[in-house]
TrEMBL record:
The lineage of its organism: Bacteria, Bacillati, Actinomycetota, Actinomycetes, Kitasatosporales. It comes from Streptomyces achromogenes. It holds the Pfam family LON_substr_bdg. This is Lon protease-like protein. Residues 6-224 form the Lon N-terminal domain.
Length: 246
């Protein structure tokens, strides 16, 4: 099994292979990470791993105040993640390749990266200025009937989009070309659906493409039926997401 050690960037979201990830980097631990990545020559990949946070805070408490007036100031690479960061994160993440790392005048960074490969989290090291992790690359196996399942998922996804646009009183952009590669379809649909982090995480760590597509087909049909019966959709994201300094 291929293993690799990379900088680790925990987020309150799931990154899928092929999906673009914009980041506004302002905490010192992640600024240090970006400065280190900039040492890599431009013609080489500037890679780091993204994992979804299971139990913890994306932004470490830096002072008493919002969102928690009793929060104690925390410092260091593992701030906000407890004594054992590995237990705080989901066990499967995604490698991100940073195409753009731009430092602003105030020392913060604007980053644009793309998800590439799924990885299993083996261990976390908090001894440096930022977290690093030992990771095992996970192959993407097609599974049985992935092609037929992808066609069914695309049909269901188009119906889901239509229902979602109608429930939110938005116009649906048509004519967009959707991919036909089953693994690409599985990741695109997983990223586009309105699901919570645990649901997206289950899709990311599916054992193969066919299993992921099968789960997506079930979810799409259920969600489309729910949307059909509702006159409008609640702002669920506002109730799930904590107040962030971003």
């Amino acid at each position: 099994m291929t293993t690799v050690r990379l900088p680790l960037f925990p987020l309150n979201s799931v990154l899928f292979p092929g999906l673009v990830l914009p980041l506004n980097v302002f905490e010192e631990r992640y600024r240090a990470m970006m400065r280190d990545l900039l040492k890599t020559p431009e013609d080489e990949s500037r890679r780091f791993a993204v994992v979804a946070i299971r139990d913890g805070h994306e932004v470490a408490p830096s002072a008493r105040g919002l969102p928690d007036r009793t929060a104690v100031t925390e410092r260091g690479p593992a701030a906000g993640f407890g004594d054992d960061p590995a237990r705080t994160f989901h066990g499967v993440g995604c490698v991100a390749d940073a195409a753009t790392i731009r430092e602003r005048a105030d020392g913060t960074f604007e980053v644009l990266a793309t998800g590439t490969t799924r990885v299993k989290l083996l261990s976390v090291d908090a001894s440096g200025p930022f977290l690093t992790a030992e990771l095992q690359e996970l192959p993407e196996e097609p599974g049985e009937e992935a092609g037929a399942l992808a066609e069914g998922v695309l049909r269901a996804f188009r119906q889901y989009q239509k229902r979602l646009a109608g429930a939110r009183e938005r116009s649906l952009a048509t004519g967009a070309d959707l991919p036909d590669d089953p693994s690409v379809v599985s990741y695109l649909v997983a990223a586009a659906m309105m699901l919570d982090v645990p649901s997206k995480q289950r899709l990311l760590q599916a054992p193969d493409t066919a299993s992921r597509l099968r789960d997506e087909l079930t979810v799409l049909r259920a969600e489309t039926a729910i949307i059909r019966s509702l006159p409008s959709l609640p702002a669920a994201d506002l109730t799930r997401a904590p107040t962030s300094l971003n």
